[in-house]
Structures are given as C-alpha cells and as structure tokens.
Specification:
CATH superfamily of the largest domain: Spore Coat Polysaccharide Biosynthesis Protein SpsA, Chain A
CATH topology of the largest domain: Spore Coat Polysaccharide Biosynthesis Protein SpsA, Chain A
Largest sheet: 9 strands, mixed
Distance between the termini: 36 Å
Radius of gyration: 20 Å
Number of strands: 9
Oligomer: single chain
Order of helices and strands: EHEHEHEEHEEHEHEHHHHH
CATH architecture of the largest domain: Alpha-Beta Complex
Helix content: 40-55%
Number of helices: 11
Strand content: 15-25%
CATH class of the largest domain: Alpha Beta
Length: 324
C-alpha cells in the first residue's frame, strides 16, 4: 500500500487565503493524504470554512483549539497524525500539484529522511507552477553537510514548509511554544536524527508574501531569532564545536537582520535592541570575515560595518527586505 502522508495546516484568521491553500492540497496528484487543519482560535470565520472543507473531502480532519500560536497548532497535529510521512503547509501558501509525489519519489530513490523542493515567493495571484518533465535533478546532503548548509545558509533553509519528512523524526521533537523562529530552534535536533536530506531542483511550493505576514512586519518578537541563535551558539560551544563557526555565521545574519529591521521601524524606540545587535556584530565580524564558508552577503555586511554603525544602517538598510 502507498504510504499515508499527514499534511499539517495551522490556520489562524486565515479566511482570506485558506481556500486557495486547501484547493492546492486536495488537488495533489498523490491522493493518499491525511489533511489535519488546526483552527487555532480564529475569530474571522476560518473555523466554519474549515468545517465546510471537511464536509467536502473525507481526508480533511479539522481540530478547533484556543489560540496558542503556530507552534501549538503544529504540535496538536503532530500529536494525532497517523501518517508515515508528514508535510507542513502554511495556510496562506500553495502547493504545486506534484509536490507530494515528486518529494515522495525523491525519498524512495535515496536513503534520505527529508526531501525538500524549491519555493517561489509571490504576492496576489497564485503562481503558475512550471510543468515537470522527466526526473528532476537532485542534490544529496549527509547529516553533516545538511547542518552546515542550514547554518551557513547555503542550499538549505530551516523552514518546515516546502518539504516532506519521515514522521519518525518528530517522535520526540515538538516546536517550542511562545516564540517565532520555532523552526530554527528544532532544526538541529531534527537533522541530528537524519541520515540524509535530498533537495529536488524544482519549484514546488508557493510562499505568499503579504503585509500581515510575520516575516515582513517588525515586532519585538522578531528578536526571538537572537535568543534562538545565541542558545545554539552556547550549545555548540559545549556539545558540538564542529558547528560553532557555522552557527556563529547564522547568528551574525540574525544580528544584521534585526538591527536593520528595528532601525527602519520608527513606531517606537528600539535602541536597546539595536545596541545588542551592534555588540554582537562587533564580537563576531572578524572571525566570520576569516571564515571561507560565510556567505558573501554576510561578508559585505561585515565590511560595511567597519565604516560604523550609522553608515551600516544607512547604506545596508536601503530597500532591505528579509527573506523567509
């Protein structure tokens, strides 16, 4: 029998985009799906919309719960899923019709525990995904290579969407509550359980960008990434020093990211947060500049930082847009 894939869809006040998301899921060419939609205390009609979808497709199971955030919603679905494989889809995003089948084929043809495809960012209309012809090129990462790729930000991201996991990876792992960048917080233990990651060179996931997207709007919670990365730095220092340089590269990216975003936001005083980021940049920049694996974007930021904090914020902050 074909393996059952559990699809985890956390939904909070998602009535504007949820229809398009669920349409793309139920239209998958691979049909053996268990679709778990978690209504996370929505107040805008998302709950009734989820229930209507469940009436139309018996594969959809809706769970209504008080608002607890993205992590709580995902954890609820992980607690009840029954599939051998799991994929996560944000409620405002869409899938290529061959998303599940393409990543499943990649897992079957390898010794991998995670298969990941490329994504396209879009605004407004749902993108027209390219037609897949023949077998897509793939790249393999062993556990060590995958961790370096994530932390150095070369070839793999830490996002849970856009990939297919073996469900066994989550047997003892759940997303931490009350923070954003919860996916970055669990990527290290997840990859520690992996033998291999296979990356498929095909655009399979549509990442919607809109004004209410948490990755496009600055809030003090965005600084959670600093806490997550600083904890990772301390953990690598004591437990796994081979990844210390890579984690520091990721931490430096976080310092640049939060400093520039907070500087652009004029709604309140972020001087304390900016001071924290500037101190972190000065602490890490020389070592990261000497590290040949650090990405060019970070090195450009480092060189700019030597001109001073004001110059960095003025020049690097122009038209700055963070990526997911």
């Amino acid at each position: 029998m074909e393996p059952l894939i559990s699809v985890v869809v956390p939904a909070y006040n998602a009535v504007a985009f949820l229809d398009q998301c669920l349409k793309s899921i139920v239209a998958q060419s691979y049909q053996r799906l268990e679709i778990l939609v978690v209504d996370d205390g929505s107040t805008d009609g998302t709950g009734p919309l989820c229930d209507r979808w469940a009436e139309q497709d018996q594969r959809i199971r809706v769970i209504h719960q008080p608002n607890g955030g993205h992590s709580a919603a995902r954890n609820t679905a992980l607690d009840v899923m029954t599939g051998e494989l799991v994929m996560m889809v944000d409620s405002d995003d869409v899938l290529h019709p061959e998303f599940a089948s393409t990543l499943l084929d990649a897992l079957r043809q390898s010794d991998a525990d995670i298969a990941v495809g490329r994504y396209v960012a879009f605004e407004g209309a749902v993108p027209s995904f390219p037609v897949l012809k023949g077998q897509c090129p793939v790249r393999y990462f062993d556990q060590h290579e995958a961790l370096l790729a994530v932390f150095y930000q070369h070839g793999l991201t830490h996002s849970p969407w856009g990939r297919l996991f073996k469900a066994s990876l989550f047997e003892e792992i759940r997303f931490p509550l009350g923070i954003i960048y919860e996916d970055l917080a669990i990527i290290y233990p997840l990859l520690q359980k992996c033998r291999q990651v296979v990356a498929v060179d095909a655009v399979l996931y549509g990442y919607r960008q809109h004004e209410s997207n948490s990755m496009r709007v600055f809030s003090p919670h965005r600084a959670d990434v600093l806490d997550v990365c600083e904890r990772l730095e301390k953990q690598m220092l004591h437990d796994d020093p081979q990844y210390l340089k890579a984690v520091r590269s990721r931490l430096l990216s976080a310092y640049f990211n939060i400093m520039l975003l907070s500087h652009q936001d004029k709604s309140s005083d972020h001087s304390q947060l900016e001071n924290r980021c500037w101190a972190g940049i000065k602490r890490l920049r020389l070592a990261c500049l000497a590290d040949g694996r650090v990405r060019a974007k970070n090195k450009l930021g480092i060189l700019t930082s030597f001109m001073g904090r004001r110059f960095l914020c003025s020049v690097a902050g122009r038209n700055y847009q963070p990526k997911p």
